[in-house]
Amino acid sequence: MKYKRILLKLSGEALMGGRQYGIDPARLKEYATEIKQVVEKGVEVAIVIGGGNIFRGVAGASNGMDRVQGDYMGMLATVINSLALQSALEEERVFTRLQTAITMEAIAEPFIRRRAVRHLEKGRVVIFGAGTGNPYFTTDSAAVLRAIEINADVILKGTRVDGIYTADPEKDKNAVKFDNITFEEVMNKGLKVMDMTAFTLSQENELPIIVFDMNKKGNLLKVVSGDNVGTTVNL
C-alpha cells in the first residue's frame, strides 16, 4: 500500500444515492464495503463526512436564519451521517469509533487527538463528526485539520466526479481532466477543489489531496495502492 494512514472526506450529498435528501442505505453499504477492503489491507482510516444531505448552514443563513445557529445545525447533521456510517461499518464487522468536536457523551467520544491516533494504530476506523466544532468552518476545513492532527499521509476526497477538470464535466463535455496538479495551479486557474481555508491549510502543511470517484467500485483500494486514479494535488 502506498499510503499507511488516510483521511477520507465524503460529502453528505454522496450518502443520498438516488434520493433527493437523507440517507440511502444501499449507498451506505457500498461505502462500508469499500472502506472494509482498505482496512483489511492494513491501512489506517479516518473519515470526515459532510451534512449537506440533511442541512446546510450556509443555505439556512441565505433564508434569513442566523448563520452561527445554522452552522451548528449543520454540525449536528454531520453527526447523524457519522452515526449511520458507523453502523454500516459495524454491520461489515469493522471496528469503528466516532469522535465529535462537540461533546455528546451518550453517542460518541469527544475528539481527543491521542486517543484517535491510538484507535487508528489498533486498526479501528475513526469517524470525526461535528466539523471543527466552530461555526464559519466547513467540513473540508475539519477534514484537513484532523488529517494534520493525526499525521495522515494524504487526504482522499471521494466525490461523484473522477478527478479535477478544467471545467465542470457534468456541464461541459469538453472539460479536460488533470492527473496531477499543484496547489498553485489550482488557485491560479480558479478551480474548485475545497474551500479556500481548507485548501490553504493543506498547502501550508504539504498535505497532498487526491480527488476521485468514490462511487466506482474498487476505486478507494486503487487510490490507496497508488494506482493512477483521480487527480492528485500536491506541491
What does this structure look like?
The chain has 235 residues and is α/β, with parallel strands linked by helices. Helices cover 38% and strands 20% of the residues. The chain is built from 8 helices and 11 strands. A 9-stranded mixed sheet has the order 4-3-5-2-1-6-10-11-9, with helices on both faces. It has a two-stranded antiparallel ribbon with strand order 7-8. Helix 1 crosses helix 3, helix 1 packs parallel to helix 8 and helix 5 runs parallel beside helix 7. The longest helix is centred in the middle third of the chain and has 25 residues.
Write the layout of secondary structure elements.
Blueprint: E1 5-10, H1 25-40, E2 44-49, H2 57-62, H3 67-91, E3 96-100, E4 109-110, H4 113-121, E5 125-129, H5 139-149, E6 154-159, E7 164-165, E8 177-178, E9 180-182, H6 183-189, H7 196-204, E10 209-213, H8 219-225, E11 231-234
Parallel strand pairs: 1-2, 1-6, 2-5, 3-4, 3-5, 6-10, 9-11
Antiparallel strand pairs: 7-8, 10-11
Helix pairs in contact: 1-3, 1-8, 5-7
Radius of gyration: 17 Å
Derived from helix and strand composition plus strand pairing, the structural class reads alpha/beta
Shape by Cα distribution: globular
Please outline the major beta sheet.
9 strands, mixed
**Terminal Cα span:** 22 Å
Query: What is the average per-residue confidence, as pLDDT, rounded to a whole number?
Result: 95
Q: Strand share of the residues?
A: 15-25%
What is the number of helical segments per DSSP (H or I, 4+ residues)?
8
Q: What series of H and E elements makes up the topology?
A: EHEHHEEHEHEEEEHHEHE
Strand order of the largest sheet: 4-3-5-2-1-6-10-11-9
Based on DSSP secondary structure assignment, what is the total number of beta strands? 11
**Proportion in helices:** 25-40%
Q: Which oligomerization state do the chains in this entry correspond to? A: single chain
Low-confidence stretches: none
